[in-house]
Every structure is written in structure tokens, then in C-alpha cells.
Amino acid sequence: GAGGNAGGDSGGRCNGTAPQDGGEAGPKGPDQLEGPGTAQNDSLHLKRRVGLVSGVALIVGTMIGSGIFVSPSGLLERTGSIGMSFVIWMACGLLSLLGALSYAELGTMNTSSGAEYAYFMDAFGAPPAFLFSWASTLVLKPSQMAIICLSFGKYAVEAFVTECEPPDIVVKMVALLAMVVILYVNCYSVNLATSVQNVFTAAKLVAVLIVIMGGAYKMFEGNTQHLKEPFKDTQFSIGNIATAFYTGLWAYDGWNNLNYVTEEIKNPSKNLPRSIVIGIPLVTVCYALINVSYLTVMSPMEMATSEAVAVTFGNRVLGVMSWLMPLSVTISTFGSANGTLFAAGRLCFAASREGHLLDILSYVHVRRYTPAPGLVFHSIIAGAMVMYGTIDSLIDFFSFTAWIFYGGAMVALIMMRYTKPNYPRPYKVPIIIPYLVLVISIYLIIGPIVDKPTIEYLYASFFILGGMVFYVPFVHYKLRIPYMDGVTVFLQMLFEVAPTTSMFD
Ligand code: ARG
Fold first, then answer.
1. What is the distance in A from the centroid of ligand 1 to the CA of 135?
2. Which of 336, 340, 364, 335 is nearest to 350 (CA)?
3. What are the contacts of 420-426 at 24+ separation with CB within 8 A?
């Protein structure tokens, strides 16, 4: 379906107009780590507009999405006991923090946007970086977007139909509508997108607070019966624990979100690590308290079978205000989708700037400074996934692919400590941390395969490696697709976009 079409376009490169030399994403000296105002003023650039607050909002507001409102059931089902579930929820938070601290080193060392893409380019060279951009533009980022928008649609529609399951097609249409609105916001202006992110993050924190206070109130009333004997019925199997992790880690995914937009952060060497250290523990604490809250009003059994725990919770605690819960989930998912698209556009931008995807995807709107073509491209693929996919089918699959690359980033970090010992590292993570994250990601990749080998994991691996089929002719040998230059110029005028000046010149 969508993958095939879009893949066919990938890799075409129009050499004529691109100012960048397609060269290496090299390190930048400390002088370039500065905020706005250094030698970049008059050229066309994405501007540095993300400060500490927006940085934290981009992390927290993306991480808190649909997961915490739906995953607790799945996690409980896979572990058998609330105690074990809780341990996994916390372990996921810790893992995200350790991963993000490692990304803080990578992101302050190489301050170009695109996260893994930029780090792979530095550490391993072009082919692995290409495979990452290939897999993430065609699968990872759009599937995140699709899962979140589908959850949005589900809750938005559920608020209106009470009697029956909402019709699938309506949910999908609402999901697409949300996607179009978010696309518009992000193409319109970076300031608007970050403002939306800030406002929605604040709103969702209020929603989280409502759940926590509701839970605290119930607890003081003495509803602690479900919290006794937390480890009763725990199930132990390597594969189950790994897939339970997948469910939990989906709720935490987005911990690396700020690394995609480093070029737009004011003073990244300070604000990137700070945002990480504030954002991720904040999310972890929220998730812990929410989980306890849920259990004050429902038994583990009810929790495992509930279609939407947050809504069940709302119905039991909020009385006439119970409509607040589906509303909160729609707000939360909308904000998370906004943050996801924001980052996805930058990734596309960074990879195509190096000649790894179509050139047009790296262009920026001449007046609005938004990477509009990349955003539109992502949304088209995500839209196709919304039409043909389901939430559950996408999640395990997503995590498997994602952790291959998160693990890869740890290898990049460790390797560069040896190969590039003299790079400036404004933030240096204790080296044990990336090793630990690497070992866990290997377990997360292998665990489910060993436990229950399904053909999908094989497909995913083949798909990633299959990118080489496009890499060799179009990127390595710079084979040009006939008429591509004309198409690029046409699209350039249509979108009113122009190439940017490379940060590396
Ligand atoms: N954690 C979010 C949720 O619970 C999903 C975040 C998607 N990932 C991302 N990098 N944008 O729905």
C-alpha cells in the first residue's frame, strides 16, 4: 500500500538547486551551540524558537498521549498482577530516563536536527543513517501518528455514542480530520505549533491532576482493598514480560522527541538536558499515581477487562462530570499528535537535506519557516495507515522497530566515545547508562521473537534492510529520476518553499 508508493519516490535527488553538499553531518564547534544570532540571521533557516518551557512541553506533551488512559489493562493482562504491572510501569519510566540521558549527550554533541539520523550519520556513516530515515519516514513516525489519531477518533466519537460500539468509518474520519487540523497548524507557523503544544500540555496535566486527586480522595475514604496482595497471580515468562514492556513503553514513547528539533532549541546545550531531566521524571510520577488512582475504584479484574480504564474511572468518580474523561483523552491525544508531527517534519527535513530523501522534503516555507513539504508527506502516509490499520496491530510492531533504532543510538554513543574522543560534549552521560540501555533493548528486540516467533517481526526486519535497494542506486550512485527536477520546481512553487542553507557550511 502506502509504503510501496512512497518508497518508489524516495531517494530521487535533484542536484541543481540544492545548496548543501550532501556532505557529512560533522560536529559543530562550541560557537555553533549558541542560540539565535550567530551568523545565521539572513539565510533561510528554521528559527530557534523552542525555549525551556516549550522544550519540556514537547517532551511531556508528546509522551502523555493515549497510553496511560488505555494501556494499563493490556499491561495487567500480560503480567497477571498489579504489583508486577507497577514494577514494569516504573521500569519503563526509568528506562526512558536512562535512554533520554544518553540522547542528551548525543544531542548536545551533534546539534543538528533529526535525532538518530544525525547520530548514525556521525557514528556509522550514510547507509545506516539512510536505513533509519527510510524506516522512520515510511513506517515509524506515520504509525505513531496513526495510532494516536485513531485513539483520538475513538474517544471523540465515544463521547457521543453511548449505546453501541462507534462505527469504524466514523472513527477513522474523525482521526483524519484531527490529522488535517494538526497538519495545518504545523504548516502555518512554528509559533502556533509550539503554542498549541504548550496549551494542550497544560490542559492534559490538569486532566492528569483530576485523576490523581480523584484517586487520592477515594483512598482517604478507605478504598484500598484492591491494593492489598499486589503480587498475587504474577505470571512469569520472558516473552510476556517483554511484550508487557512494549505496552508500557508505548505510553512513555516520545522521551527522545526534543532531539528531533535540536536546531530550533534556544541554547540547546543547556535546554536539551534540562528539559529531559524535568520532563521524564514528571511523566513517570504522573503515571505511577494514575495507576494507583485507577485501582482505588476498580478491581484488577475489572481493570484488565475494561475497554478504556480512564472512562471507567470517570464514570465511577466524577458523577455528572464524567464526560470530562473522554474529553481529557481527546485533548491529550491531540496534543501528543501535534508534538509527533512537529518532530516528524524535522526528521524528514534533516534526512532529505543530506540527499537521503527527496530534496523537496527538505525545503522550508519562504515566509513561514515551516518544513511544509515534509509535514504534508508524513501526513499522507499516516492518513493511509489510519484508513487501513488498527490501534493494537500497530503498537507491538512499532515498539519492535523503534527499539532496534534506540539500541542503535546507544551503540553510536559508545562507539563515538572511542572514535571521536575529542568532540565537544557539553553533557557527558556516565558510560554505564548507554551500555545498560543497549542490553535492555537487545532483550526487548529478541524477547518477543524467542517467546512467540511471528512472521511480522521478520517482515519488519526485511523492510528495514530492504531500504538498501533504494540506497544503492539513488543515494550512493546519485541516479536521477527522469523529470524529477521539473517536479521539484513545480512543487516548490506550489508550496512556496525554498532550500535552506546548510548549518554545516
Ligand atoms: N506516548 C504516547 C502515547 O501514549 C505516544 C507517543 C508517540 N511517540 C512519539 N515519539 N511521538 O500515546
1. 17
2. 364
3. 420/27, 420/122, 423/27, 423/109, 424/27, 424/29, 424/30, 424/33, 424/109, 425/105, 425/108, 425/109, 426/30, 426/33, 426/108, 426/109, 426/269, 426/270
Residue 341 C-alpha cell reads as 508531527
In sequence order, what are the beta bridge partners of 497? 365
Strands in 70-195 per DSSP E = none
d(CA 441, CA 242): 10
For residue range 339-380, what is the model confidence (pLDDT) as tens digits?
899 888 888 777 777 776 766 666 777 666 777 888 888 899
CA-CA distance, 383 to 275, in Å (whole number)?
Answer: 31
* 254 Cβ inside 6 Å of ligand 1: yes
Per-residue pLDDT of 218-261, as tens digits, reads: 888 887 787 787 777 777 777 778 788 888 999 999 999 999 88
Torsions phi, psi of 481, nearest 5?
-75, 130
Q: Which residue spans within 326-410 are E strands per DSSP?
A: 364-365
Give the C-alpha distances (Å, rounded to integers) separating 450 from 204, 236, 453, 457.
38, 15, 6, 11
| Total-model pTM | 0.83
ipTM of the complex: 0.97
The residue whose CB lies within 8 Å of the most ligand 1 atoms, and thus the one to mutate among 197, 252, 340, 395, is 340
Residue 223: what residue type? N
Phi, psi dihedral angles at 454 (to 5 degrees): -110, 155
Distance, CA of 460 to CA of 464 (rounded, Å): 6
In ligand 1, the atom with minimum distance to the C-alpha of 257 is 10
Ligand 1 atom nearest residue 67's Cα:
4
Q: What is the largest CA-CA distance in the chain?
A: 72
Contact present, 328 and 204 (Cβ < 8 Å): yes
> Residue 50, SS3?
strand
